[in-house]
Amino acid sequence: MQFDIKFSEDLSLYREEVKIGHHVIPNAIASHPMEGGDADEKGSPTDMTFRKYKRIAKGGAGLIWVEAVSICKDGRSNDKQLWITEDNWRDFKALNDIIKKSAKEEFGEDYHPMTIIQINHAGRYCKVKGKPSPIIATHKKNLDERLGIDESYPVVTDEYLDSLKEKYVQAARLSKKAGFDGVDIKACHGYLLSELLSAYERKGKYGGSFENRTRLMMDIVEAIKKDAACEGLVISSRLNIYDGLPYPQGWGVSEGKGLEVDLTEPKKLVKSLICKGVQLISLTMGNPYAFPHINKPFDLGNYIPPENALHSCNRLIREVGNMQKSFPETVFVGLGYSWFRDLAPYVGAGSLKHGLCKIIGFGRESIAYPDFARDILENQEMKRSSVCISCSKCSEMKSKIGTCGCVIRDAAVYLPIYKEMKASGV
Ligand SMILES: Cc1cc2nc3c(=O)[nH]c(=O)nc-3n(C[C@H](O)[C@H](O)[C@H](O)COP(=O)(O)O)c2cc1C
Ligand code: SF4
Prior knowledge:
This is NADH:flavin oxidoreductase/NADH oxidase N-terminal domain-containing protein. InterPro entries: Aldolase_TIM, NADH_flavin_oxidoreductase, OxRdtase_FMN_N. GO terms for molecular function: FMN binding; oxidoreductase activity. Keywords: Flavoprotein, Oxidoreductase. Pfam families: Oxidored_FMN. There is one protein chain. By secondary structure, the protein is of the alpha/beta class. The chain has a single domain, classed as Alpha-Beta Barrel (TIM Barrel). 38% of the residues lie in helices and 12% in strands. The protein contains 14 helices and twelve strands. The chain has helices spanning 47-59, 89-107, 141-147, 158-177, 192-196, 210-226, 264-276, 292-295, 309-326, 344-353, 364-368, 372-379, 393-401, 411-424; strands at 18-20, 23-25, 29-31, 63-70, 114-120, 127-128, 131-132, 182-185, 234-240, 280-284, 331-334, 359-362. An eight-stranded parallel barrel has the order 3-4-5-8-9-10-11-12, surrounded by six helices. A two-stranded antiparallel ribbon has the order 1-2. β9, α7 (264-276) and β10 (280-284) form a beta-alpha-beta unit. The site of flavin mononucleotide has 24 residues, from β4, α11 and α13.
């Protein structure tokens, strides 16, 4: 197979500012969203959340993408997921303030990282009181079986989906009040809006045709764009461009072509989103509950992937590059770099140099090695002794107990929680 991964030793490329409207992202490094499952019962951030984002902010990434925050109670991925409401938006303001303040303390008064908050409905991955409570847009045999549901399980109604638009807009308004620079209408990793994109077999106005499958997402974007209380918010999206499932279960594939990537529809959607005013897109792939190797290539995990990790990284980097080249004016954030450990800075620089994306995003590195950005920018390296070792322990915690962090590099905090989880036999 052909590898499209590029390398460059020119790490000064990361120091380039990235402009989005009147905003300036101070460097080309993003901290990707990493759900930590450490909110209180009202969905507010706790000391653990503040600690995590303070460390990330002091680490120097120019774009800080805050993890999945629920738009409604029944849309949470677990009882400890963040959830923004009229009652607690000030706690989110405190979170945004601490990010901005910590970054300034470290890099000076004129330093302004861009903050994006990811708003989401967990769809088939909702959990209430620790129990899976799937809200599905369409049946997907492979994914249904994993949740222990069959064709008799009800598909969410059009009326329920209609009601979500206002909830997304309200979450966006509160995010604006809380001071975030932008909001991410999350449509990835198999959650509700992501699942709708491949609802080919759903009946009614949210299923079947491309227009129907993308309707809710487009309606939400349009409504936020028009809402006076959201004025000035950067509208962004973390968007799947490939699910890793064949037609008619997956998005980013075509009929009769198995698992081959086909970006025809994702490109059509990206074009429409840009026309509606989306300015920043973080591209991603896969479903972390079913095929984690597609989104976060790993060395150790709960199954042996059908391809090697280099192949998975290559797919992520190549297809993000394909998108970036198709929409050269738009800012796309890329992924697929943490697996390269201390060589990641050179792979990312290769992508920047060859125009495969405008910002290099790191997920697991943000919790394993929050100073990774500073080390790239100031010391031209990522330290071998600090990098994520792609052991999947954080993912294991996320799926089993919700609360998660880096068990290896942030062991003082997360190893005891991991051990307790193991001892409890979850
Ligand atoms: C524990 C954990 C939590 C995550 N939470 C989120 C999330 O809240 N939102 C999201 O879009 N992606 C989430 N991701 C995916 C990451 O943002 C990222 O795409 C993935 O880890 C691959 O990037 P990496 O190779 O740099 O780690 C999560 C990943 C892990 C391992
Ligand atoms: S637990 Fe830490 S080292 Fe292991 S995959 Fe997660 S972030 Fe990386």
